[in-house]
Every structure is written in C-alpha cells, then in structure tokens.
Amino acid sequence: MQIVHHPDSVRHDPAQYFRRGSLIAHPEQAARYILLRDAARDAGHDLVEASDVGGASILAVHDAGYVAFLREAWELRGELGEVGDEILTGHFARPQMHRQPEGMLGLLGLYTADTSTPIRAGTWEAIYGSAQAAVCAAELALAQGHAYALCRPPGHHAYANSAGGFCYLNNTAIAGEHMRRATGGPVAIIDIDVHHGNGTQGIFYARDDVLTVSVHADPANYFPFFAGYADEIGTGEGAGFNRNIPVAHGAGDALWLAAVREALAAVAGHRPTALVVALGLDASQDDPIGVLQVTREGFATAAEAIAGSGLPTAIVQEGGYLCEALPRNLVAFLEAFDAARE
Ligand code: Q9C
Ligand code: ZN
C-alpha cells in the first residue's frame, strides 16, 4: 500500500480540550501521525510524501470565506487583543442568528461548532498538508487501484463552512469530489469511524453524484448528537443518496461487521466508479473515546469486505486515538486490504 502523508501534519498539536465540564488532554494529537506513519513503514508499506497540488480541490468542497478564515485567522489574532497559544471561542452561531459577523471573534463562532477545533500557529499548514495527502491518495488510487492517505488532523466532521469534532477541512469529501471530477462518474463514500460522518453527509446531502454511507455508534447520546440517524436519506436530487447505519453501543465485531456489509451492499447498488473509505479506527475496543468494541480481526475482516468491491479506492484516515492497539489496527486493515486485492 502507498501511504501518502504530509510532514506538516505535526504543526497542529492542540494541548487541551474542554469536555463534559473539565479540561482534558486533547485526544487528537500530532503523535497520532508519527505513530501511524512509523507503524505503516515498519510493516513494509511505502511512504509517499504528498506534493502540493494547490487549493482547487479544497475549494471544490469548502466555502471560500471559511477557507480564507482558516488560512488567515492566526495571523489576524491581534484583533482579539492578547491571545495565548491558540484562539478559540465559546460563542457559537445558532440557527436563529440574524447576520454574519465581520470581526474575528464572531467569525470564529460562525465557522466552528464546538471547542475541539482551536486555531494555533501551525494549524493551517497542518490541515492544508492533510488535505493534500487526501488529493494525492485519490490520484494514486485512480492510477493504481488503491492508496491510503494518512490525514491528520482528520476531516469528516467538517462541513462546507464549519469546523468541529477535531476536523477543519473534510479530507474524505475532498478526495471524493476529486475522484468524481476525475472519473466523471458517481463516487461512493463509506465511513466506518465510530462517529457519524456528519460533515461529509452535509456536503453531499442534496447531491445524487456522491453517495454517502456511514456506519457509526448510535448518536442519540454520543457525538455528533444532531445527525447520524437512519431517517436522514438526503434531500432534493440527493434523496436516496445518503444512508446512515447507527449501531448500538457495545456492538462488537459481529454486529458492526453486519452493518459494514449492509453499507457495502448499498454502495454496490449504486454502481459507483470509485470509492473513498473514511477510516476511523476509533470503533476499536481499546480506543479511549470509542464505544463499539471492534477487535483487530474485526478491522481486518472489514478491510477484506471493502476491498472486495474491486473499485479504485482511496482510504482516508479519520479518527482513532492514542492506545497500543491503534497502530496494530491500522496495519491489520492495510494488510488485509492489500491481501484481498492481490
Ligand atoms: N466522549 C473524530 O473522531 N467529542 N472526531 C468527544 C468524547 C468529540 C471525534 C467526546 C469527538 C470528535 C474525527
Ligand atoms: Zn471518530
């Protein structure tokens, strides 16, 4: 497997995160990139540094004002007065707001959904590099059959115009739209992160040319709370082109794999020309914030089933947090995927 990555990934390394009333170490750390990259290399995969192919594929998915804000916010922080290592707000736009603000503090509340996505000195470089890895892996997948993008920070909770859930630029959506434009045909996205891929769903919700399917822990009392239910099927031309398969907390391999197979059947039914896998590894039984109890064998079985689609496939890293099993689960997934494609 070609492992596409960008060294700027480490330049965003948030320290703390306000969760359920207390400050905890931020789960989405730069160390994830090092750990996953080195584990893949040690398992014999080829590391490919992402080249800079520019911002067009980002702007194909994201709002230009939002992207400009992400790019410039740190440089414009003086507008907020004294700031520490990061800028972050506690005032978020609500659906009933009356106008788009002009100042930085208001824009932060407009463009972020929660307190998990601070902007720091290297945030833009890291999220831009992560998006470049997604585009390069999409290109490689179309040319050679499959590739893995070691994206970090992750992306699937980012909407066209908002950050949230540790995500800023939606790498999965960027890869999917890139592949759709390159092939001219419909593309499918299967998201197996433990959390619903709400941003990806939102980006393609009214469209019939990118099918979005997500298997995730029941969001009724779990992030992202406000989306991820089975009755969200898409809207307008996109009706029938979104599928959510929520799974009961504590599911384990058998129930989770049944949901993954159901997702794959939905993908096959739409006859896409290419596939993006939003590969969260936080469904693991060892993940510090996961709730689905999936084992290493479970990830390997899912990889084999997904590879069985035979489609050009870009595998994009999403969640999956620091624990001993994290690199082992990645290696098991990649190995099983490769084996099924030989
Ligand atoms: N109980 C991704 O996996 N809330 N984002 C965590 C823990 C935010 C996860 C609360 C979770 C965001 C890419
Ligand atoms: Zn997740």
Q: What is bound: which ligands?
A: N-{4-[(3-aminopropyl)amino]butyl}acetamide, zinc ion
Task: Give the end-to-end Cα distance, rounded to a whole number of Å.
Answer: 11 Å
Sketch the topology as an H/E string, one letter per element.
EEEHEHHEHEHEHEHEEHEHEH
Low-confidence stretches: none
Total strands: 12
Question: How large a portion of the residues is in β-strands, by DSSP E?
Answer: 15-25%
Helix content range: 25-40%
Which class best fits the helix and strand makeup? alpha/beta
The largest pleated sheet is described as:
8 strands, parallel
The Cα radius of gyration reads 18 Å
How many DSSP H or I helices?
10
The average pLDDT value, as a whole number, equals 97
Oligomer: single chain
* Overall morphology: globular
Report on the structure:
- Helix content is 36%, strand content 16%.
- With 342 residues, the protein is of the alpha/beta class.
- The strands form 3 sheets. It has an 8-stranded parallel β-sheet, with helices on both faces.
- Strand 2 and strand 3 (22-25) form a beta hairpin.
- Helix 1 crosses helix 10 and helix 9 runs parallel beside helix 10 (325-341).
- The longest helix is centred in the middle third of the chain and has 22 residues, at 123-144.
- The model has no long low-confidence stretch (mean pLDDT 97).
- It binds N-{4-[(3-aminopropyl)amino]butyl}acetamide and zinc ion.
Mind sketching the topology for me?
Elements: E1 2-5, E2 16-19, E3 22-25, H1 31-42, E4 46-49, H2 56-59, H3 64-72, E5 86-87, H4 104-111, E6 119-120, H5 123-144, E7 146-149, H6 171-183, E8 187-191, H7 198-204, E9 210-217, E10 242-247, H8 252-269, E11 274-279, H9 296-307, E12 313-317, H10 325-341
Parallel strand pairs: 1-4, 1-7, 7-12, 8-9, 8-11, 9-10, 11-12
Antiparallel strand pairs: 2-3, 5-6
Helix pairs in contact: 1-10, 5-6, 8-9, 9-10
Zinc ion (ZN) binds near residues 193, 280 and 318.
